[in-house]
Amino acid sequence: MAGFIFRRILWAIPTLIVVSFISFVIIQLPPGDYVTAYAAQLRHSGDYISLEQEALLRAQMGLNDPMIVQYWRWITNIVLYGNFGHSLEWNAPVSSLIWDRLGLTLAISTLSMLFTWAIAIPVGVYAATRQYSVLDYVFTIFGFLGKGVPDFLLALILMWMAFAWLNMDVGGLLSPRYQNAPWTIDKVINLLSHLWIPVVVLATGGAAGLLRVMRANMLDELGKPYVETAYAQGLSERQVVWGYPVRVALNPFISTVGWALPALFSGDVITAVVLNLPTTGPLLLQALKMQDMYLAGSFILILSVFTVIGTLISDILLAWSDPRIRYS
Amino acid sequence: MAVDPIGIPVKSSREEELYTAKPWTLIWWRFRQHKLAVASLIFLVLTCLSALFADFISPYTPGSIDRLNTFAPPRAIRVIHDGQLRMPFIYALARTRDADTARVTYEEDTSRPIAVHLLVRGERYRLLGLFETDLHLFGVDDPRQRINLLGTDALGRDMFTRLLYGGRITLSAGLIGVAFSFILGLALGAISGYYGGWLDVGIQRLMEFIRSVPTIPLWMGLAAALPIVWDPLFVYVLITIILSLIGWTHLARVVRGRFFSLKTEDYVLAARLSGASEYRIVTKHMLPAMTSYIIAAMTLAVPEMILGETALSFLGLGLRPPVVSWGVLLQDAQNLRSISLAPWLLSPGVAVVLVVLAFNFLGDGLRDAADPYGR
Q: pTM (2 decimals)?
C-alpha cells in the first residue's frame, strides 16, 4: 500500500509541473504584457510613461527573457515564497485576494459533494431494488433532467422561483444588513437561507449522473449468486442490500470522487457568477475579462492543483478499498 | 411451416429475416424499439432543419429592431373567435403605460383578430446564402402588428426568429466541435489501443492530464485570450476548437477500449497472418466493427459541446453579439429583474435543455443498439 501511494504521488509531480506550465502559458497568451497593461492603466488615470521608461521597466522585470526563464521565476516565487505576483486591477498581491475566496469555494464544493452523495446513494439503491416502480421512473426522469439542465439555468430558475413565490432575497451569501454584523443565530439562519440554492444547483448535476451509475452497478450486483446466498442465510433485506452489494457498487463511486472535485469547481464558476457568490468564480471571470493575468493564472493554477490532489486522493481511496488495483 | 417446391421445410420468414439480416439492419431494428430515442431523432432532425432554414421559417430577421414593441409577451395563435371557428389568427396588441409605475404594458385587443397567412412577403434575406428573396413561411399583413410567437427582447427583436438563428450557431458549434474531437480522439485512441506499449502509456497520461484540469476555468482562460477585435466568425471556429481540445479524451477512451478488445479477435489475427498491411487491418477490418460504438459516443459528446458553448457565451467569454447563439441570447436573461419582467427570455434555455436531452436519449438508444448480437 505504501509503495502504491508513493508511486502514485511520484506520478502526480509531472502532472503538477505541466499544469503549472499551462497556467503560465495562459497568462502569457493575450497580446501585450504586464508593462503594456500598466502603461494603459496609467494613461487611463491621466498619467503616462515614455517608451524608454516602458523598455526600462521590461528589462527590470525581466520580461524580455525567454518564456521558460520567466516561467521558472514565476513558479519558484510561488513555491518558495508563496508569492503569486501582483494583481493589476486590484493593485494588491494576488495571494491576499484569493485565499478566503478559495476557502469558501472549497467549503461550498465539499458541502454540495456531501449533499450529492446523500441524494445519489440511497436513491440509487432504492431505484435498483425497486426497479420499474413509479419512484424508479420519477428518479430516472430526475436523472435525465439533471444531466440536461445547465447549472446556470437551474440557478436562474431557482433564484426566480425563490424570489417570486417564496419572497426570499437571493443572491450573495448574506443579506446586506448581516454583512458586517457579528455572528449570531440570525446571521447563521440568513447564511443557510442563501446557501441552499448553490448547494442544490451544484449537487443536482452531480447527483443525476451518480444516481444512474449507482443504479446500474446495483442492478449488476443484485443478480449475483452471493446475494441469493445471503438471503438464504435468513438475513433481512436491509442487511443483505447494505452489507454486500452496496459496498461493491460503491467502488466506481470512489474512483469518481477525483473527477467530482474538478466538476464541482467548474460548476461553481458559472453558478457563482449567476448567484453573485463571493467565491473564486466571479473573481476569475472578472480577472479574465480585464486580462488581469497574474490573478487569472494563479486561480487556474490553484484550481488545477486541487484537482490533481483530488484525483490522487480518489486513486488512493480506490486502492485502499479494492486490493486488485493495489497489486496490479 | 411452409414447404418449398423441392420439399425442404423453410423456417418462417421472420426468423429467416433475422438470420440473414445485415448488421446495420439489426441495429436499426434494435434502435427502433427504443421509442424515446426514435422520438429524439425525429425531434433533432426537425430542429436541425428549422435551424438550417431559419431565415425562411422565421417571420423577421434577427437584427430587426422595433422600438414600439419591446418586451412584448408571447402571442398565441388562436382559431376560435366569438365562439366561432375560423382561420388561424392572433389578437392585436395594444400598448399602454401603467399610470403609477410608467412601465409599458401590453393588452390583447380581443375585438381585433388579425389573420395569420402562410408565405408572406417581408424583410429581404438570402436563402441559404444563395438566392435573394423576401418570402417568409408565415406572418401577418397588418403593418403595425407583429407576430411574436415567443415575445420580444429589450430592443423589440423577435425571440422566435432569434432562437432559430441561434440554433444555427449553437448546433453547428456542437457538431463541428465533435467532428474536431472525433478526428483527435480517433487518431490518438487508435494509436493507443492498437500499438499499446509506451505509446499507450504516454497517450493515457496525456488523457489523464487533460481530464484532471478543471474544464471551465481552462476554457475560460483560453477563450479570454482570444482578442476581441477578431472576426466573430473566426472566434466561433476557435471556440469550437477549444471545446474539442478538451472534449476528445472521452471519445479516445471508447476507441482505445474497442481496439484493445478487437485486437485479439480471430479475424484480425487471420488478416494479419494473410499479410494485410497495418493500415488495411485498421481501416478495413477493425474500424467497421466499431462504427456503431463511435457514432453512439459521438452523439453523447454533442450535448457537452453545446453546454460548453452556451456556458462560455453566457459568461461573455465565448461568442459575442452580433453573433446570435443560444448562449448569447441567454446573456439577456442574466439577472432577476429581466427574468421576472420577461420570463420568455429564458426560452433559449428551454431549447438547450430539450436539445441536450434529445441528444442524450438518442445516444443512449444508439449505444444500446450498437451491439445487435449482444442479447
A: 0.81
